[in-house]
Structures are given as structure tokens and as C-alpha cells.
Design a protein that fits this description.
It contains 8 helices and no strands. By secondary structure, the chain is mostly helical. The radius of gyration is 15 Å and the shape is globular. The chain binds protoporphyrin IX containing FE (HEM). The site of protoporphyrin IX containing FE has 21 residues, from α3, α4, α6, α7 and α8.
Length: 139
């Protein structure tokens, strides 16, 4: 079955379209730089440690495997469930949107084709939605 004309999601074509490890490293650098500087992202920035270097590497490694490339995260750190890894944070709709906003700006800054930019953001919306929690009462 052909999912889309460029075969994203088939074998490692998405990882290659993202520029492999080098491209993902730049994407993730831009993403956390956005989180660092965008006023609307300060709430989620503060959930992270002061030093973003460890999580930059983890996200690059995760995305490599997630996009069908080398499974660097599981090889280095073991298995991961994205919802479980985020359970200890309070992530509601605003936090999800701030994360996706930083992501969208970072994707737009890459030399990707428009169709891959669109595809990648659409795919990332799925785990971002799963990370969001529902609160029965705020406070
Ligand atoms: C939707 C809003 C999200 C927020 C607010 C958020 C926030 C965070 C925070 C606070 C951490 C811990 C950082 C630290 O230890 O310093 C983290 C780790 C991580 N996040 Fe997210 N995240 C979100 C969505 C996502 C999504 C959608 C993905 C995957 C596509 C992702 C992938 C990761 C990975 C791989 C780690 C490292 C986990 C580990 O090894 O401990 N995050 N995130």
C-alpha cells in the first residue's frame, strides 16, 4: 500500500528525508532553541533540566528510530513509551500546543520539501496528543 507519493513511513525513507542523523540533530537543536527563547514556551521549558544537552541527544536518538532509521534510543537507553516517559509532568492542551509550536517552527526552518514538512508535523501530532493528560480537576 502506498501511503503517500514520497513513501514516507516506508522503510527508512522518513529518516533520510529528515537528513539522517545530521539533519535530525539540527532539527532538534532548533526545536530546543525555540523552547528556550519563545515566551509562550517557558512553562514547558521549565519542566526540563537547565542543561538541555542530554534531552537533545535523547530526542535525536528517539526520532531516528521513530522515523525508521537506526534505533539509537533503544540501543543506547533501552525501550521507551513516550506517554509513560511524560507521566510525571503536567501536560495539558496549552503545553501540548507550545511543544507543537516549537516543533512547527523548527521543521519550517529545515531544508525539507513542503510535503515532508507537512508529513512530519502531522505524524508528531499523534504522540503529542498521547502525552497530553486529561485533568478531572485543575488547581
Ligand atoms: C506534548 C508536549 C511535550 C512536553 C511538554 C514534553 C516535555 C518533556 C520533558 C519535560 C521531558 C524531560 C526532560 C528532562 O528530563 O530534562 C521530556 C523528555 C522527552 N521527550 Fe518530551 N514532551 C512533549 C512531547 C514529546 C513528544 C511528542 C515526543 C516524541 C515524539 C517527546 C520525546 C521525548 C523524549 C524522547 C524524551 C527523553 C525521555 C527520556 O529518556 O527520559 N516528547 N519531554
Amino acid at each position: 500500500m502506498q501511503l503517500n507519493k514520497d513513501n514516507y513511513g516506508v522503510t527508512d525513507s522518513s529518516c533520510q528525508a529528515a537528513g539522517g542523523l545530521a539533519g535530525l540533530t539540527t532539527l532538534v537543536e532548533d526545536f530546543y532553541d525555540n523552547m528556550d527563547r519563545i515566551p509562550g514556551a517557558q512553562k514547558i521549558r521549565k519542566m526540563h533540566g537547565k542543561d538541555l544537552e542530554p534531552v537533545r541527544k535523547k530526542l535525536v536518538y528517539f526520532l531516528s528510530g521513530w522515523l525508521g532509521g537506526p534505533r539509537l534510543y533503544s540501543e543506547t537507553y533501552g525501550g521507551i513509551s513516550i506517554p509513560q516517559a511524560h507521566q510525571r509532568f503536567r501536560i495539558g492542551g496549552d503545553e501540548r500546543d507550545a511543544w507543537l509550536f516549537c516543533t512547527k517552527l523548527a521543521i519550517d526552518n529545515q531544508p525539507y520539501t513542503d510535503s515532508f514538512k507537512e508529513y512530519l508535523l502531522a505524524q508528531l501530532r499523534i504522540p503529542a496528543e498521547r502525552v497530553k493528560q486529561v485533568y478531572s480537576h485543575e488547581g
